[in-house]
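Our consortium's second objective concerns turning raw sequence data into structural hypotheses that experimental partners can test. To show how far this objective has progressed, the report includes one record in full. It was chosen at random from the queue rather than selected for favorable results. The single chain below, 245 residues long, was entered without modification.
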Amino acid sequence: MKNLIIRYAASVAKPGQQFLVLFGAPGVGKGTFAKLLIKDTKFNHISTGDEIRKILKGNTSQSFDPKLIATIKDIVAKGGLVSDEIVMNILQEKLKEPESAKGVILDGFPRTLRQLDLYEKILPTNVVVNVTLRADILLEKLAARRTCVGCGTAFNICDINRDGYVMEPLNPKKEGICDACGGKLVIRDDDKKEVIEQRMKEYEEKTHPLLERYRAMSAVIDFEVKRGKKDYPRLWDLVKQQLRV
């Protein structure tokens, strides 16, 4: 089955719908802040990587196009990569969900200039949050992540208190065991040193250049993480100045 083609329109955004992009290096905390922002904005959280994983597990909403689901499963089964066009189709399907009525939080997308080109043809960007963290702190935190093989719940055994950075560990109650389901906690392949270094290199080469475009087209909030989730009230104060919430 060939890749689907984006259903282009002048804009697929609904009246009043707002678009917030969470931007930043892998592991900087975009997903954590997204979960907190969802509660305050009542926006839908869209992580295209997560959506692809849901599709492969059969956990999509009933509104999803079955042809799109079949296409993605076929590509992955054959060892292929999901194209930018198909990722845009996934985004458009997510916009149909009732949770997207007020707006969406885009987490990890767009991640290349080509994806941003495709995105800009049909959707606006109201505000971009550029989440940053000092490189050595970020690498230390990434290497300390532990993920449940059963339910995917994430923990972090890193305890940082230096140079103005105070980040407490998120330890399980029992070492190596998930609090949520009792599953085994492991270091994901993505969190191994050599993979982390490669992901950071790709981010600098492919994703970081998007910032220049974002600064020219929409409001960008530069937000340095110092205390992990405890920084959220400061972030929310900045975001709500830019959105209608």
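The partners drew two points from this record. Strands lie at 18-24, 44-46, 103-107, 127-132, 145-148, 154-156, 160-162, 165-167, 185-186, 219-224. The longest strand covers residues 18-24. Both points have been shared with the crystallography group to help prioritize constructs.
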